[in-house]
Amino acid sequence: MRDAVIVEAVRAPVGRRKGGLSGVHPADLSAHVLRSLVERAGVDPALVEDVIWGCVGQVGEQTFDIGRTAALAAGWPETVTGVTIDRQCGSSQQSIHFAAAGLVAGQYDVVVAGGVESMSRVPMGTSLMDRDPFGEAFMARYGTFPNQGVGAEMIAEKWGITRGQCDEFSVASHEKAAAARADGRFAAQIAPVTLPDGTVVSEDEGIRPGTTTEVLGGLKTVFKPEGGVITAGNSSQISDGSAALLMMTGEKARELGLTPLARVHTAVLAGADPVMMLTAPIPATEKALKRSGLSLDEIGAFEVNEAFAPVPLAWLADVGADAKALNPLGGAIALGHPLGGSGARIATTLLHHMRDNGIRYGLQTMCEGGGQANATIFELL
Predict the structure, then answer these.
(1) Residues in the chain with pLDDT < 50?
(2) Which is catalytic among the residues 32, 55, 89, 174?
(3) Where would I find the Thiolase N-terminal domain in this sequence (predicted)?
């Protein structure tokens, strides 16, 4: 029976907006990650049959099928194809799902899944170009232009999540990420980027050691001036980044003499209210557990993207997972959220954490535009 295994997972450091990676073209950043991926795995890139690449802002420097451009920019053979996909924030997690499905179906033997977003160079919302993306029928059904920040406020109100809880969660994210960085726990997953002037960007730039609830408490709310909870301090950071996973069948890995990190055990999707938008990780997690046949307590680590603090807090409240197993190395509030690259970044972090700690099963999920969510369960091999 065909399966889908991951033999290597690599990411660039996550750069802050206008930070160390802002001068790097997103195709070049993608190419750097692709080269690092096959070099670390010791695999000839000619074996790769496709690059499935997530990217949300497919405009300007990120248009013209950046998945294909990245493979060519990496110096890979022209026989290696590439495709670019958009499931909003879950784009590169969806690329993992598509890659796994292609492997199991026999469409591929070796494939790369990943993604990129340079939010410094292609700011969020650039692709709208002052146009309406929804049309008359959608607006007649829902009556409003969905806004993720407003959706996060709606979640906070529905689940009774306070500003203090959001800020406490954010402080914990920075503390966990800072501790992980200090302990060198990100080193094996990061491919440092050397800039033209010789500067080396080797660490995630958004982590703020020493962040306190007092500091965060002084920030103004963004989407709801009176009685709101969402601030810049308890939201994901605008970032630049890229990540990639080298995937193949277990049979192909054995043929090449490679030892897989993990296999894709279960991959599902869920949809929910597109106006509140950010709640679908809850039904996606429930669906993944049901389809996998695994119980909640069999999952040793969870990654729930920290788009806004109420998202993982509501997820915790409904799913009932152990809070200590959630985002153990910090999340997007501290590390950053390079949209189309985040799903693969999260997977890379999760897989390395599973390997480092002998965790058999790990689950990742993330909210996505349109009220959607991917959920993926990996099994350590």
Answers:
(1) none
(2) 89
(3) 5-249
